[in-house]
Amino acid sequence: MTTTTAPTTARKPAAMAQALNRALRDAMAADPSVHVMGEDVGTLGGVFRVTDGLAKEFGDDRCTDTPLAEAGILGAAVGMAMYGLRPVVEMQFDAFAYPAFEQLASHVAKMRNRTRGALPMPLTIRIPYGGGIGGVEHHSDSSEAYYLATPGLQVVTPATVGDAYGLLRAAIASDDPVVFLEPKRLYWSRADWSPDDPEPVAPIGRAAIRRPGTDATLITYGPSLPVCLEAAEEARAEGWDLEVIDLRSLTPFDDETVTASVRRTGRAVVVHESNGFGGPGGEIAARVTERCFHHLEAPVLRVAGFDIPYPPPMLERHHLPGVDRILDTVARLQWESDRTEGRGD
Amino acid sequence: MTTTTAPTTARKPAAMAQALNRALRDAMAADPSVHVMGEDVGTLGGVFRVTDGLAKEFGDDRCTDTPLAEAGILGAAVGMAMYGLRPVVEMQFDAFAYPAFEQLASHVAKMRNRTRGALPMPLTIRIPYGGGIGGVEHHSDSSEAYYLATPGLQVVTPATVGDAYGLLRAAIASDDPVVFLEPKRLYWSRADWSPDDPEPVAPIGRAAIRRPGTDATLITYGPSLPVCLEAAEEARAEGWDLEVIDLRSLTPFDDETVTASVRRTGRAVVVHESNGFGGPGGEIAARVTERCFHHLEAPVLRVAGFDIPYPPPMLERHHLPGVDRILDTVARLQWESDRTEGRGD
Amino acid sequence: MTVLEQPGSSGNKGTLPGPPPAWRPHVDPAPLLPDATPYRVLGTDAAARLDPGLLTSLYVHLVRGRRFNAQATALTRQGRLAVYPSSTGQEACEVAAALALEDRDWLFPSYRDTLATVARGLDPVQALTLLRGDWHTGYDPREHRIAPLSTPLATQLPHAVGLAHAARLKGDDVVALAMVGDGGTSEGDFHEALNFAAVWQAPVVFLVQNNGFAISVPLAKQTAAPSLAHKAVGYGMPGRLVDGNDAPAMHEVLTEAVRRAREGGGPTLVEAITYRLEAHTNADDATRYRAADEVETWRAHDPIALLERELDARGLLPGEFVTATRDAAEEMAASLRDRMNADPELDPMDLFRHVYAEQTSQLAEQAEQLRAELAAEAADQSVQEARP
Amino acid sequence: MTVLEQPGSSGNKGTLPGPPPAWRPHVDPAPLLPDATPYRVLGTDAAARLDPGLLTSLYVHLVRGRRFNAQATALTRQGRLAVYPSSTGQEACEVAAALALEDRDWLFPSYRDTLATVARGLDPVQALTLLRGDWHTGYDPREHRIAPLSTPLATQLPHAVGLAHAARLKGDDVVALAMVGDGGTSEGDFHEALNFAAVWQAPVVFLVQNNGFAISVPLAKQTAAPSLAHKAVGYGMPGRLVDGNDAPAMHEVLTEAVRRAREGGGPTLVEAITYRLEAHTNADDATRYRAADEVETWRAHDPIALLERELDARGLLPGEFVTATRDAAEEMAASLRDRMNADPELDPMDLFRHVYAEQTSQLAEQAEQLRAELAAEAADQSVQEARP
Ligand SMILES: Cc1ncc(C[n+]2csc(CCOP(=O)(O)OP(=O)(O)O)c2C)c(N)n1
Ligand SMILES: Cc1ncc(C[n+]2csc(CCOP(=O)(O)OP(=O)(O)O)c2C)c(N)n1
Ligand SMILES: [Mg+2]
Ligand SMILES: [Mg+2]
C-alpha cells in the first residue's frame, strides 16, 4: 500500500489492530484524561484485541469493562466528557452501535452547538465496520451513511496501518466527537510501520492520494481501498492509468483534494461497500459533479454494495465491490465516442 | 396546490391532519388487523390529533396508549406483525424515533429478508418530521436520510392533503414496512378534498408532477413542496418555466418520472429541508446525473438545510430553504454562456 | 456483591446436589425496598423537630417558584415564550432538588425542571432561553453545574452517571442529581443509567417526579409496579418513596441520599408522589384526559398549603412575612416579565458557530451564502424604505 | 394496580396532611420477590415425587443436547460452521424451555439457544443455517413457532411481548417464552419489554440464563442487584430464582410460569443460575478471563450428572437405557455431521429476493448486473478450463 509519508525510523510489519492498540496506549500515556470503555475491552482486550493490555497497564478505571448496554455506554461517556474526560468508546460491532443512536444523534453530535461551545464532546467512538469476515447477520453493516447525515460528528476511517495509528491519535485529540470506523476486514492487514514515522498524527479532514493517475479517479475509503488499488493495477492492462484517493475523513470532507483530482482526470468512480442507495457515494458524486461539471467526460459513477440487507457469509462475496465490478464500471466512463447514458438507461 | 387527480365527488376543505385521521379510520374499519399504537394516541388523540377519536370508535385494544418507550413500541409492533397484525406506530416527533433505531434497522427493515419472506413486516411507522413550527430542540429534525440508507424500508412522505390520505392508506396496505414521514408544518394546510376522490390510494413508488414546466426541474418532497411551487410561480417573472416534481416516495425511488423530466428540461435543482451533506439530495442528484448526464446543461444543484443541528425557533427561518434561496440556485444553472463551476469553485 | 462471585469462590462444594457451587447471594434486598407508604414529615410528630430556618426558606422558595411558573405561563400567552411546561403543584420537588445540592454538585434537569434550575440560582431569563427560542441552552452548564434541560426523555440520566463517575475518578466529592418523570422511567435509558450507577457505585441521586401522567397517559398505563421506587432493588440500590408535596420530607430524603452518595455509599432512587396541577404545557388541554375533581383532590394537598399549615401552627407565618414573601415573588415576576419583553439579540451567523471546534470549509461556504442573502435582504428593504 | 389510581379516587381525604389524596398502593410486592436461594428439586425431598417419565425424558434430551453442542463445535473446526456459541453446561435450561411450551406457543431464542430450538423439534440443519452462513434464518418461524435466533441482544424480548399480546387480542391462548442472557438484561430493550409485558399483562415468560458471564465480563460488572430475578418487582411481575442446572426444577418453574401466563396471570421473570462450561464461542479463549478451577467447580454441578444421580438413586438408570440414550445421541450427531458435510445449495440471486414483497426497479437492475457478472465469470472459467 502506498502512503504519502516517507518512513525514517526503524519499521517492522504491524497489523492494523496493533497500530490501533498502540495509538490507544500512546494516547492514554500522554493524557490522563483519556479513558477507554466498552464491552469486553478490559480483561479480554476486546473481541478484536484492539484494547489488549490497556487495563493491565492503566488500570480498570482507565480501561473499563462496562455493562452490556450501548446507550448507557455512550450516555455515560457524554457525562464523562462533560466533566473534562476524553472517553474512547468501543462499540463491539457496527450494528451494535444502533442502540446508542439517540445518544449519538441527539446529544453527542449536538452538545457543543446546544451549549454555544460550553460543553464540547471530545469523544471518540470506535466502531469496527463492514463485511468480508464471514460474520453472521448484524456483524457486517457499513453504517457510515447514518453518521454522515448527522452534523456535529466527524467521521473518520483509516485504510492503512499508518493511518490507523495516526487518525486514531488525531481522533482522540480532537475536541469534537469522532465516529472512528475501523474496517474490520483490514484488522489483520499488515504493513511495515513504526509509530515514530514522521507526522504520525494524520490530520482529520484530509484525503490522501494513494496512487497518482491521469485517466480517472477512484474515490474510496476504508475496506475498499485495497480493492481499488488492485483494480488500478489491473486497469493498466486495459490502458487506464487510475488515480486512487483514500478519503480517510468522510466528515469533514476534503473537497479540495477530490475536486483537484477529478478536474485533472475528467472521470471518477466512487467505490464503497455500504449500500448504494442513500449511501455516501451519492453525496460524493453529487458534490464532485457540482464542482467539476465542465471537466467531466462522463457522469460520476458508483460501485457500492447492493441495496439489500448485508448477506450471509456464503454469499457476501457477490455483494462486496470487487476488482471486476470496479473495472466494469470504469469501462462505462464513456472512453470512446459512444455517448449513451449511464446504467438504468 | 395542483394534483394530478381530478375530483368528482363532493369535496370540502380539509386539513392534512384530518385526512390522515380519516385514512387511519377507514383502514381500521376495513381491516380488523390494523392496530394503532404509540404515546398519547388513545385518549388524547395524539399531540397533533391525527388519531383523534380512534380509541373511542375502535376501543383501546385497536388504538393503544403505550408506555413511553419507543424501542418497546416498535419492538412490540414487530411481534404483533409476526402474529399477523398490521400495526401502525406513531412516533411523537422525529428525534423521538431515534431510541427505536436498532429495532428499525436490525429487525423491521431486515425481517422479511432474514426469513426468506416468512415473516413480512406490514408495519407503518408514522413520524411527524421537519421544522417550521417553532419547536424547541429535538422537535424539528428531518431524519429521512437515515431511513433512505436502510434497505428493506419504504420511505414515503405526503405533501398534499389528498396524498396524506392516499399514501397512508397505501402504506398501511403495504406488506413492507413503511416509514411514513408527515411534514408537521403542513398538518394544518388545507385543500378541497374528499376521500371519495378517484384513486384515493396513491401508489407507493410513484412521483407526481405538481407543475409542468420546460426550463428546469425542481425535485422535492414533503414540507418543501409548497415552497417550490411558490418559487416556480415567482420564477415566471424571471422568464423561467419550472417543472416541480413531488417525489412522494423516497424509497422506492421513481427514477422513471424524474429522469424523463430532467432529460426534457436539461436542468435540475433538488430541494429539501434536511441537512445537505449526506442528505437525500446527494443520492437524488447523483442518480439523476448518472441517467441524464448528456442532457444536462448544468450540474444538478441542491438547496437544503445547512449542515448544522436544527436551529432554535427564532433562527429557523434562516435555515429552511425558502423561495429566494431556490431562485438564487436556479439562477446558477448556467443559463448564459458563462460556464463557471458550481458553488465552492 | 452479586449472585455470582467471580472467580472461583464456591458454595457448599461436595454436598451435591445443593445450590450451584460458586453461587452466593451477597446483597440483602430488604434495605433496598421502599416503605409501603410515602415518607412524610408534615403532619407527623417529626415535624416538630424541623428547623424553622429550613421551613421558612422552603416556603420562600415555593411561593417564588409558583409565581415563576405562573409568570412563565403568562409569557407564553404573550408570545414571549414558545412553550412552557409548568411545574405548578410540583414545586416542593423542584425546590428540594435544588437545595439538596452543594455548589460543586451537578443538577441534571428534564424539560419540566426550569424551576429547579432557577431555585439553584440560575438567572430566570437564561433558564428560559430554550423555551423562548433564541438558543437551545441559555447558560454555561459548567459555570452553573447545571446540565442542559433535557428534552429527549431519560437521556440525561446516563450523563449524570458518567459525570458523577468521572468526578469520583478525579477524586472530587461531587454528586449528580438527575430528574426524570414517571413516563421517563419506561425508557431504556432509565434502566441503563441506573444499572451503570449501581455497578459503578457512582454518586448519583435519581429523582423521579411521579406526577401521575406522561402527557395524557396515566401511570396505570405506564407501569404495573407496586411503586416506581420498587425498581431500585433490581439494580441493587435503595429505593425511597416520598410524598413529593411535603417539602421538608423531600428535602430530608434528597439531602440524605446526596450525603450517602458523597460518602461513597452509591446511588439512590427517590420516587416523589406528586401531581401536575396544570396542563402538560400551555399547548395542552388536560381536560381531554383527566377529570376536574381529580385535580381538585390534589389541590387540597397543595405543597404550599401543607407547608403553610405547619408554619402557621408553629407561629412561623406572621402576616409581614407572608406579605414580604409575596412581594419578593412579585418583584421577581415583574423583573422577569420586563426582561422577557425585550427582544433577544439574534445573530443568524450563530447558526454556523459551535457546530465544530473549527469551522469546516463547507460551513464557511454556507455562512458566506447566508451572509450574502442577508445583505441582499437588507438592501431590498432599504430600497423599499427609500420609496415614498 | 399502581400507585396512582386514576382518575379521582382518593386516600384519606380531609385528614391533612396525610398521604397525598388519590394515592394508594395496589400491588403487594411480597409475592413478586424471588426466594433468597435458587429453587431446586434434585437432592431435596420433592425429588421423590417427580414423575419417572419426565425424568427419563429430560435425561434423553440433556444427553442428546450435550452431544449436539459437541458436534456443532466440532463442525466449526472442520470449517462447516462459521461459528458456534455452545450451551454446554446450560442444557437443562435449553431443554426445559423447549419442553415447557405447547405446540401452539412461541419460542424466542437468543443466539446461544440453538439447542432449545432443536429440543423443540427443529431440524438441526435448519437450526444451524445461521451459523453455517448460507442464510440468516434456516426455517419458517411461523411453521415452527420459533422466532429467528436473535443476535442483537435483548431485541427479541419486545417481539415476544408483541406477539403474545397479539395472540391474546385474537383470542388465542398462546404463550411466548423469550430467552436472554445475564448480559442481555443490561440492555434497554430488556427493560422496555418487561414493562410492556406487565402493563399489558401479556402471556410471556422471560427466561434469563445467568451463566455468570457476558463474553468476558463477569456478573459483578454487569449488575449490583441481589439477583436478576429481583428486577421483576420493579415491573410488577413475579421473579423466580431457579437452579438452572436442575432440569426438573427448571421444567417445573417454567411450566408453572407458562400455565400462569396462559390463564391470564401475566408475565413472569425466571432467572436460572447456570454456567457456560465452554468458551463464549469456538473463537473465544475463555482462559483469558476465568480460572480453570472455577470451571471445575461448576463441572461438579453438571446438569446431566445431577440428574443421573437422581435417576440412579431411583433405579431409573439401567445400563441399557444409558447405552441406548448415548447411541441415539451418537446417531443424531452422525447424521448431523453427514448432512452438514454436504455443501448447501446457494443461489446468489437470493440476495435480491425478499428485500421487498415486490422487487423494486433498482433491485431488478442490480440483479441483472450480478447475473451478467456471474455469466462472465462462468465464461471465463470455461475458457480457462478449455486450456490445456
Ligand atoms: C424520547 C422521548 N420520547 C417522547 C417525548 C415526547 N414527550 C415529551 S414530554 C412527554 C411526557 C413525559 O412524561 P413524564 O416523564 O411523566 O414527565 P412529566 O411531563 O409528567 O413531567 C412525552 C411523551 C420526548 N420528549 N422524548
Ligand atoms: C446489542 C448487542 N450488543 C453487543 C453484542 C455482542 N455480544 C454478543 S454475545 C455478547 C455477550 C452476551 O452475554 P449474555 O447476555 O450473558 O449471554 P451469553 O453469551 O452468556 O449466553 C455480546 C456482548 C450483541 N450481540 N448485541
Ligand atoms: Mg409525569
Ligand atoms: Mg451470560
Automatic annotation (TrEMBL), chains C, D:
Residues 1-30 are annotated as: Disordered. Gene3D superfamilies: 3.40.50.970. InterPro entries: Alpha-ketoacid_DH_E1_comp (IPR050771), DH_E1 (IPR001017), PdhA/BkdA (IPR017596), THDP-binding (IPR029061). Residues 357-384 form a coiled coil. Keywords: Coiled coil, Oxidoreductase, Pyruvate, Thiamine pyrophosphate. Its cofactor is thiamine diphosphate. Residues 67-333 form the Dehydrogenase E1 component domain. SUPFAM superfamilies: Thiamin diphosphate-binding fold (THDP-binding). This is Pyruvate dehydrogenase (Acetyl-transferring) E1 component subunit alpha. The gene is pdhA.
